[in-house]
Amino acid sequence: MKKNKVLLFYNPNAGSGLFKSNLDLIIEKFQRKKMFVVPVRADRKGILQEVMSGINPEEYRKVIAAGGDGTINLLVNTMMQNGIDLPIAIFPSGTANDFAYYFDIPHDIDGMVKIALEEHYTYTDIGRVNDKYFINVAAMGFLVDVSQKTHPDIKNTLGIISYYLKGVAEIPNLKPISVKITSKEYTSEDRIYFMVVMNGRSAGGFKRIAPLAEVNDGLLDVMLFKEMPILELAPLLINVMTGWHHENKNVVFFRTNKLYVESGQIVGTDIDGEKGPDFPLEIEVLPRKFRINTAVNDMEGVLL
User: Fold this and answer.
1) Which of left, alpha, beta for 164 (phi over 0: left; psi -120 to 50: alpha)?
2) CA distance linking residue 245 with residue 210, whole number of Å
3) How far apart are CA 48 and CA 65, in angstroms?
4) 132 or 240, greater pLDDT
């Protein structure tokens, strides 16, 4: 059976709406290449699950996720739940596009479509937190509360700046949480403000959160931002912006393929910008789980 269909999953409310206004142009470009786009509008919860549970994957060449990290996260979780293994192309049109940034996916329509029309792919790991999957980052603590308190309309209008503004406003309410971390590489009880488990390199607009991370190395980069005097937050922020926070005395850094996180407190969690599961958290990496459409081919011996 010839694979000439492309499933296009798009979030009409993501980012500035650039994608929605170019939908017809995108369909036209694919049809010129004898590929036919099946659009799925993410206008309500559960629509992607309905579609994925009913398609024949043998008819499809790839799936396109048009939106931010949250849109890709929803797609990957739905594909995992339905046992669908298809390549994924990314059209970054959300507030946060950190996963697309890792692969240098362009933000203009012509650039996105050019990559999606080709057959160059790179393997990527994904992470799992309890029964949820993430593609870029799992986070917990203070900054999660900041993100979840920021209204979606403000995020779409101001983008990443909205997180910074909300974060500054919430500093007077900053409180540490007590956690117990268990892994082969690091086991300890700590008081922290924030914790990130990275598959990608950037998060929340900070481009160098995990500057040495690789999405297909079978490891997660873990950082604990420990309790500290408020006066030490500003130097740490500068370290984070320059990618040197690993050397800061208030940061614990290690790499692992699996860890367990416990806490006696109620702690907010976040996976790829969406609300995450409750504690305790069992976190692990699933190596080389998906193929991502990229500008150059990084796979050998793969038949599509």
Assistant:
1) alpha
2) 9
3) 11
4) 132
> How far, in Å, CA of 153 to CA of 285, rounded?
33
Average pLDDT over residues 27-44: 91
Residues ≥6 apart with Cβ < 8 Å to 298: 120, 121, 122, 123
Distance between CA 172 and CA 187 in Å, rounded? 30
Summarize pLDDT for 273-298 with one digit per residue, the tens: 888 999 999 999 999 999 999 998 76
Domains and CATH numbers, the chain: 5-119 (3.40.50.10330), 133-287 (2.60.200.40)
Q: Are 37 and 30 in contact (CB under 8 A)?
A: yes
Out of 45-49, 81-85, 88-92, 127-131, which region has the weakest mean confidence (pLDDT)? 45-49
Give the separation between CA 64 and CA 37, rounded to whole angstroms: 9
User: Per residue in 138-149, pLDDT tens?
Assistant: 999 876 655 545
